[in-house]
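Hey, resending since the last one bounced:
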Amino acid sequence: MPALARRGRAGDDIHEDVRAAIQEFEEDFNRRWRVTQITPEVRVEAMSLGIKHFLRGDDAVHLTSATLAARRRRHPGVSELILVSADSQLNVAAESEGLAVLNPAAAVP
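The structure tokens again:
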């Protein structure tokens, strides 16, 4: 959300349409998303992906969580998992791992 806020700044405030998008995202997050713990599996895989793609620790955990969740979702009738990130390095890494990526910073004019 900080990426949306930065892109939608109007002086010291945020444009109303960007504020509405942030609110919609927060509501959707609370309704549909699941926050998980960092398991030993995530920790080990994050170290591997972090080294492979030269990622910071938090980005490696983000990528790992997304790749593991995407693997678990691959069933007929289940929509594809999309990684949402405004970090270009993370997005390149995610795409190379076979994930669909949505960059919110690129979506806001």
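The radius of gyration is 15 Å.

Sorry for the duplicate.
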